Amino acid sequence: MQKITKEQLTEKAVSLLRDGTVTHVLGWSAGEFDYDITPAVFSDEASLRKSFVWNDFCGANFSKYLVSKTRGIEGKLLVFLKPCDTYSFNQLLTEHRFDREKVYAIGIPCEGMADIDKVKAICGDGISSVNCDGEKLLVQSIYEDAPISVSPSDVLAERCVNCKSKKHVAYDELMGEDGDVLDSARFDEVSRIEAMSPDERFLFWQNELSRCIRCNACRDACPACTCEVCVFNNPRSGVENKSPANNFEEQMFHIIRAFHVAGRCTDCGECSRVCPQNIPLHLLNRKFIKEMNECYGEYQAGETVGSKSPLTDYTLEDLEPGEVFDRGDINA
Amino acid sequence: MRKCSLNSLQSVFGKIASSALLYLPVDSADGRAVFSKWDDGTPLSNALNTVRSPKDFFFPQTEDLMRFKTEGKSIEVIDVREETEDFVVFGVRACDVKSFDILDRVFLAEPRDSYYASRRDHGVIVSLACTRPSETCFCSTFGIDAASPAGDVSCWKTESEMFWQANTEKGEALIKKIEELTEECSDEAVKEQQEKTARIMKKLPLAGLNTDAFGGGKTEELFDRPEWTELSEACLGCGTCTFVCPTCQCYDIKDFNTGNGVIRYRCWDSCMYSEFTKMAHGNNRLSQKERFRQRFMHKLVYYPENNDGLFSCVGCGRCLSKCPISMNIAKVMKKLGGE
Amino acid sequence: MQRIGVFVCWCGSNIAGTVDVAAVADALKNEPGVVFSTDYQYMCSQAGQDLIVSSVKEYSLTGLVICSCSPRMHEVTFRKTAAAAGLNPYMVEIANIREQCSWVHKEMPIGTEKAIILGKAAVAKVNLNAPLTPGESPVTKRALVIGGGIAGIQTALDIADAGFPVDIVEKKPTIGGKMAQLDKTFPTLDCAACILTPKMVDVAQHENVRIFSYSEVTDVKGFIGNFDVTIKKNARYVNEDICTGCGDCVTKCPQKKVPNEFNLGMDNRSAIYIPFAQAVPKVATIDPAHCTMLKTGKCGVCSKVCKAKAIDYTQKDEYITEKYGAIVVATGFDPISMDKFDEFAYSQSPDVITSLEFERLTNAAGPTAGKLLRPSDGEHPQKIVFVQCVGSRCDSCSEKGKEYCSKICCMYTAKHAMLTRDKYPDTEVYVFYIDVRTPGKNFDEFYRRAVEEYGVHYIKGMVGKVTPEGKKLMVRASDLLDGKQLNIDADLVVLAAAIEPDKSARSLATMLTASMDTNDFFTEAHPKLRPVESPTAGVFLSGTCQGPKDIPETVSQAGAAAAKVIGLLAKDKLKGNPCVASSDELMCNGCSSCEKVCPYGAITYEDKEFRMPDRTTRIRRVASVNPAVCQGCGCCTVACPSGAMDLRGFMNEQIMAEVDAICK
Amino acid sequence: MQVKEYKPLIVAFCCNWCSYAGADLAGNNRLNYPAEVKIIRVPCSCRVNPMFILRAFQRGADGVILCGCHPGDCHYTSGNYFTRRRMAMLFSMLDFLGIERERTRVEWVSAAEGAKFAATMTEFAEQVAALGENKRLEDLRCKK
Q1: Is residue A167 a contact partner of residue A101, using CB atoms and an 8 Å limit?
Q2: In a mutagenesis test of the A interface, which of D89, D99, D101, D108 is the best target, namely the one with the most A β-carbons within 10 Å?
Q3: What is the pTM of this model?
């Protein structure tokens, strides 16, 4: 279902390696079952041809890897960026987190990524391969003789269902066509929770956050979380811990995390994608984005390099903290 | 061997729960199986396994060890341990049952971990045979038969019946308790199910994965293999694999100042974390590659070296499905084992 | 581990009346780190301080907690005590058990309980205190005064007299400002020019003063004691050093139809001009917008007639960068535009004028040589209506005017009315007012003379509409005291236009990181106690840029600002506030979040080489705080995602320790 | 048995220049307000990290109020404008999580507003008392 093929990307990477434009390629490496794809740095043609892959399960946002992978390399690093990744790319540049000169960025179109859990919900466990025939995903299970045909739209990852933009905001080169910023319904779920009573909201989040095992996957996958030392690892910060000792710490971890990335979060959705406990963490970040949009004017982190986030800015007429609660009533 | 019809399963559960807390895998609202406390009518999940392993019952993620209280300039140590209630964990899969062998060797060896031991003493493990393994399963690699789970009691579930087999004294006692609700039976149906499962196991994508390249004594051979760089390249350093793993047993002991005293507690730690075993001089494993290598060397080399060849992986596949970047022990074994 | 001494003050009965001080001292004895705890009647007295000093010695104390009155009261005192005892002054914390405890709680058990908790919080904080030493920075002994009106002139003169070099930057071709345009000054009626022009000459001839006229400040960098300022000298196409100010060029210039801004456009000047006879510097300036030579390349008359050969059509704008230790803002005011006040027919009739225009009409050097003549026909007006508060004291939703009172209008209108009646007794003069405000020395007497001796008709009420009818201006107004509508057929209507800060002030404020209020007046560092300092260290305020003022007030503020500047420049080195932000370079991401919120521009970034925990060496971008610029607000500490930025004296850990102590 | 009257615990962060001085003025004028209010002095309201507020709740505070100079009057020119945004966002997030909005407040109190300080604290203490103990953002470990 992706418009651009693995072969096109491989050839592009090979030619850029050959002509010396880049010395390394940040790409996806094939796994055991087609869906378990691992980001990898390739530096030679043979390994590219052997392991490089591009399919409907290449969800990982590569921007964050640029922070570590551009260090200590001689030449340039080629990175393939989906539209949503480009926002993180710009945001990291805004924060001076990697050297732009070290990167050759190719924007690639994305038709949305599939969620293996959704595939399994339809096809059951025991999936040995997932292929695409151009239109449909063909899912082979060890329990079935023939592959099961699945419509990509039925298994689209949650964040892709509410894709905010098919437009690349940063690249050196674009493959395929650029898209547009979309009019997504990404805030609907936030609005739904806002409409609950405080008690319902509390129960909702208790139920969600109580599952947290503090594995830090959300933090470690988050492109906005590139701190040299994370406050949760710093004993002097007052919030350091390795496991959530109780409800309070579960809540606090996520409130602080959301606050730390507020104004810097590009809404890439990695946090929810990687959460082993399926906690919809992106909703906390989206709440901040929605709130800042409504209170301080539309702002998309990473849309441009060097922009000032709403929390590092102000106007004389900003609403008072007590007024954030009543806006809904006023608007209604 | 005894059996009961699935229709009467809830009464059996009720009977068990009458004298001990009963936990079993239950489907949560978002479609995952979670070990939950049984209440009247709580249905057993059909899912293959839970996201979190049953390790949590015996080695919880955090537990208070003691408290200190200061009064003026004196200090008092308070034991905060509460008497563990008897409990039964039902529906533990063969792989997870095996994990307790591995944990026992760590926590029950001298010096015995009395916190863990107390829970082991009070807990009864009722296993449940697998019939529909996932592509991520590779328990057979470690000599585990998914169709013949160990535990205090082993269970097999067919279309209409549940079969029960006691393996230990504790198991006998449990079976005795539900004697009235179950009947003596032959093991024919179970045998049939086991054969069927065995055939499926052979078809699993990871069926060929073997441990030939690993085990005690392989440290020098494996430690400096260049493949570690590539394997650990994308590792984010999160603790997902360790925290869903049924055999990871590392913990940290920390003090929390409540303002009214200090709680000394322990909590899971992950060797993937940059602060793992941090000491006054700093960290002893400084790069993610070193930390990554530690985890797999521990499971595949160090642990077997110290434990009669027993690997500390049970092939449950949780890390395969949960790793944010899909790097896992199966890929490591394939890569280092020469695919 | 600290060795903390706790000293609980009775403050006579002020504290001891509602707080059991002995119980507080006793309760705090067992707090972590506390090795000594006592109470005493007056801790701030010499005996009390001696007790502290001797206790420090006796118990080898490293930190002090004083449970007493507000730190705003005696923190400095006890810091000095600590220093006298050989401790770092910043090893002291005050628990405010008077203003915030004993004085607001009446029952002894409640007051005592709270005092203990406040004491515990202070102990918890002091446990984490570290000795702090203020940083030092050198002072450039030169001041910059922006604006050359009476405020700027007075400030410059006072600073220069104290022996420090001063530069004045004035955007107009001459210094003098608004005061140079005035006729007489209230309430003494001395002639503005007679008192101002000597000062202009003084300042121009002062060896310590340089005047950059026809110039603007375009960039300000640096901080108190060390400003780098870029000044743009606009091309005046006349070599200032050679021009003798003879005026031949002005007389001969063929382009004479340029509205004369000095006379508010009521007459014309030539394209090359000297604003007025007493201008300083008295040199000609070519107005490039009207000069035929500059526009078309054809003319050159001035160049031909100039005996000094001072004309230079090729002159370019020039940029000068100079270092200063202090900056004084004296940018002054302007009357607001009357565009939005159509009801007064200002744009319809030349006989509706503003008070400043009236000032020029009565000025001997003005367009009518001091004769009060109607601009429309040059006839003598028989009936004059003065309208007060045009654009002043408007309600907050008004889009036309200002909410504030312009302060000077009541008095200059009384002056205008009185002078008119004095010179032209046959003229009827009406003044419409909301209130007449005369709170100044001899002000009310002056106003009463206008009414009682000179027979000016003061009418409480506002003018609703002015309609030109033939040669007359029909003024419709209400008399609030009589409850009548009035119709007056006036010959001249004078509007007391509100004053507002000069338009250039806003961009200047941005350059200086000095704050302004909603009306664009500069904000003082403290409205009562630091009225001539801006919140930005090293930037001072003089005159109406800070708010409406009359001349004596302006001059006194100018002197006060000068005194502050002299005090600053007299120092060789500045000691900073040690409670400043500092960044832990090992944790800093170099993300620029802190820089974006710093109101002082105190944070810069540098690339530094670090040896990382994984044994690699890396060049990292890290923040560094200039302690001389940082004022210690702490905004950056919250903006910092990693917590690398912390505030000395108010560290994260210290504040959290206080929270913990209060909540336990 | 006599039930002990419930007294909420309130932490008030006050900026040094305006609100702390306002609190002092309340003292000078002997204006009563509940003793449950405990003030922590900070240089500017913008020094208050949202973490401090969470910390206070964790440690058992039932309400947290942050006081600073009126917008436009900040001693540091712009600190309270940042505070305003930060706190608006924090409050909105706490509300989103179902934590009672009445437990947090920002109030601008000038050095001249001793009466406002006392009245605000009295009113806020009553408001928090009406809510009862903080249960939604508490850390049970810190309970006595």
Answers
A1: no
A2: D89
A3: 0.80
